[in-house]
Amino acid sequence: MTTQSDVDTRAELRSAVRQCLDRHADVWRFVADGNDQRHRVDEHLYQRLAGEMGLAGLLVPEWLGGSGAGVGELSAACEELGSSLAPVPVFATAGLAVPALLVGSGFGADDVGAELLTSIADGAMVATLAVAESPGHAVGDVASIRATRSGDAWTVRGEKQFVVDGAVADVVLVPAMTDSGTALFAVDRTAVGVQVEPMSGIDLLRGLAKIRLDSAPARLIGADSGAEVALKTALELSVIVLAAEQVGGAQRCLDNAVAYAKQRVQFDRPIGSFQAVKHLLVDLLLEVELARSAMTHAVGIADEYLRDPSTTTAADLAEAAAVARSMCSETFMHVADEALHVHGGIGFTWEHDCHLYYRRAKFCELLFGNPYEYRERLATAAGLPG
Amino acid sequence: MSVDSVQRTLSLEDFRAEAEAFLEASVSAVRTDHGQFEFDDTEDRVTLFRGATAEEAQRARDWQRRVYDAGFGWITGPVDLGGAGLPARFEQAYLETERRYPVPSRSPLGVSLGMVFPTLLNFGTEQVKQRWLLPLRRADVVGCQLFSEPGAGSDLASVSTRAKRTESGDWLVTGEKVWTSGAHYSDVGLLLARSSEGSRHRNLTAFVVDMHAAGVEVRSLRQMTGGADFNEVFLDGVAIPDENRLGDIDDGWRVALATLMYERGAIGGATAGGSGLFRLDRIIAWLHELGCERDPAVRQAFARVHAGLTAAKAMRARAEAAVKAGTTPGPEMSLSKLALTSNLASLSDLVGVALGPRLLADTGERDAYSWSEFVLGVPGMRLGGGSDEIQRDIIAHRVLGLPKGPG
Ligand SMILES: Cc1cc2nc3c(=O)[nH]c(=O)nc-3n(C[C@H](O)[C@H](O)[C@H](O)COP(=O)(O)OP(=O)(O)OC[C@H]3O[C@@H](n4cnc5c(N)ncnc54)[C@H](O)[C@@H]3O)c2cc1C
């Protein structure tokens, strides 16, 4: 249940994040351009948001130095981040790594997991989760990453691609195959045998990287087998956080398009008085409202899961995540596209920010599985055996 | 729960229990005929429109009377007017509970209870309220909406039915109304007529008219589903006493706008973007029965329906959380209606993909060809209650603040 005080806390957090972004986020300074496809992040801004404002630790329990808030709070903050496009690794750290660490470590029951969660909550550590191995692989596949044990120590070997903010993360969480099954490992970016290579990418404000692991030292989180279930659930939490970013981005695109339609005059009248434009904008509003509703619903279910992780709450989570994910992905993409269209030629220029949202929408739409895949999962989760 | 016991404070749980007890006791006593918009346990019929036949309307009236007498007929209404005086969430709880029971559909009374009743409540003279409010609520009297005309649909303000004032101060009305849902079983009509040559929106007056009065003629119209839910209504010098006037003379547009708002509220509220009409578990069970649950196209179409209905339901929950109980429905109801027509389109698509040719011709299987009535009803939902385009205009102006167009 979401109480009135939850609602108030979230509204406060949201406006604090928005104020901070209004004051300190200078997106254009970081837009990757031309030959410089190297992705950079705004480290100072990350320090403010993750450390001072505590975004990185929102899902981390209080006894590990976090605020023990919930996805409700994190999603409120991420909506603002999605709206601003600020280049900070909050999603990678708080949205990807933290859920994987939480679920993978049995909610901090494991020492390595607990230590990493504490460093993250502090704002001192940027982390991410390496999900995909190659374009053809299903999300979370670990087929070619091998983990070997010698004594108490582990090393991992293999390659991961499309790692979100992989070039700036201090720690990369890597699912790998052990002799017993699938397990989750933490690898330090600076360790021997770790080679990180930024990939040229469509999203100019959020980078992807390739990570080669050549017998790199790794720390095991949780048990040495059976992590695939935890990973699946963790990724469901992640896509719900991403859905909040998508809603934030879509809302911003819509707001910009509506404002432009009121002000741009053609044929002696604002283009927003033409029904073709007006109705298009209303359809986008409906989509955004429905996507926001699906996301809000999923956020509530995610917090129920975190309060009481059981097979029942996990099943609800799978279903709600698939609903939110398929809708928010399609909505953001569609809204970003049509908002650009309403801006006319100016929307197609490099200097206008329409394309930054368009790029981000595409990035979000395809990164962890496309809307068709999530609808397929939804059918299974809802009770149509696949 | 009886009407006079409602003053005491009642917990939602106790209320639900009382509703369940009432429904348990009633289901055996009424002919089962539930499932408007929903494939049926008892009858092989899926439809968006009910009320074409006199028996259907009569069953709805009988059921509403029972519900009212048990104290569930006007849950949010003030006690002194005959309501139960409870907050909106009790009404929600009752409707949710009722949906689990195979009771007769009350949709033939949708216009009467959802639009005519609140309009009379807010604009009727004392005589009108005394005479018609409770009978309407109990479905002893049923009302219809006499707004649209052959020349005035979306542009409702251009109605040309004339209301002429007589020397006694009463009125004589002549004109032609069309698409009047349920006129064939209605006792009163909510009428919008031209009362002067004044400027647009200042030349209309609203009335409640006795459908059994001399000069009223109802002719049924057949819609594309094959049924006949709506009618043409001819008014030839129909006498209306001035006490039946709703609102001021020449101020009928204000009344009409209120009615249209109730209409959007009734459609948007009851259907909740479609999630109030369809149960996903029934759809899933049906797909299993058809044996098409592994078909990739079916799974995609199903997931769209699932996501659309889940989001619409969550949107409704958000609106409820935001809007305090009791406020008049705002433009979000227009969004809800657009969500409804969009979800109906998705469901229609799923039905086609799942059934294939079985939607086209009757193979004798249950829950197969019977969906054709639903599929053929969807276009009507995009028009009735203000077309999709008119809803978009309303949202564009009221929510997005976009400027009015040339029209
Ligand atoms: C099932 C059903 C039940 C009904 N029940 C009732 C009832 O009980 N009582 C009653 O009074 N009426 C009733 N109606 C009538 C309904 O309100 C009208 O059909 C509706 O308002 C459209 O009017 P019209 O049919 O004259 O179409 P028109 O107004 O002629 O519209 C034709 C097309 O033009 C479009 N259009 C019109 N104006 C605009 C504009 N400004 N911008 C963009 N597009 C525009 C419309 O969207 C539509 O697609 C019912 C209709 C249906 C289908």
UniProtKB/TrEMBL annotation, chain A:
GO terms for molecular function: acyl-CoA dehydrogenase activity; flavin adenine dinucleotide binding. Residues 10-123 form the Acyl-CoA dehydrogenase/oxidase N-terminal domain. Residues 225-370 form the Acyl-CoA dehydrogenase/oxidase C-terminal domain. SUPFAM superfamilies: Acyl-CoA dehydrogenase C-terminal domain-like, Acyl-CoA dehydrogenase NM domain-like. Residues 136-200 form the Acyl-CoA oxidase/dehydrogenase middle domain. Its cofactor is FAD. Keywords: FAD, Flavoprotein, Oxidoreductase. It comes from Haloechinothrix alba. Pfam families: Acyl-CoA_dh_1, Acyl-CoA_dh_M, Acyl-CoA_dh_N. InterPro entries: Acyl-CoA_Oxase/DH_mid-dom (IPR006091), Acyl-CoA_Oxase/DH_mid-dom_sf (IPR046373), AcylCo_DH-like_C (IPR036250), AcylCo_DH/oxidase_C (IPR009075), AcylCoA_DH/ox_N (IPR013786), AcylCoA_DH/ox_N_sf (IPR037069), AcylCoA_DH/oxidase_NM_dom_sf (IPR009100). Belongs to the acyl-CoA dehydrogenase family. This is Acyl-CoA dehydrogenase.
From TrEMBL, chain B:
It comes from Haloechinothrix alba. Residues 144-237 form the Acyl-CoA oxidase/dehydrogenase middle domain. GO terms for molecular function: flavin adenine dinucleotide binding; oxidoreductase activity, acting on the CH-CH group of donors. This is Acyl-CoA dehydrogenase. SUPFAM superfamilies: Acyl-CoA dehydrogenase C-terminal domain-like, Acyl-CoA dehydrogenase NM domain-like. It comes from the Bacteria. Residues 55-136 form the Acyl-CoA dehydrogenase/oxidase N-terminal domain. Gene3D superfamilies: Acyl-CoA dehydrogenase/oxidase, N-terminal domain (1.10.540.10), Butyryl-CoA Dehydrogenase, subunit A, domain 2 (2.40.110.10), Butyryl-CoA Dehydrogenase, subunit A, domain 3 (1.20.140.10).
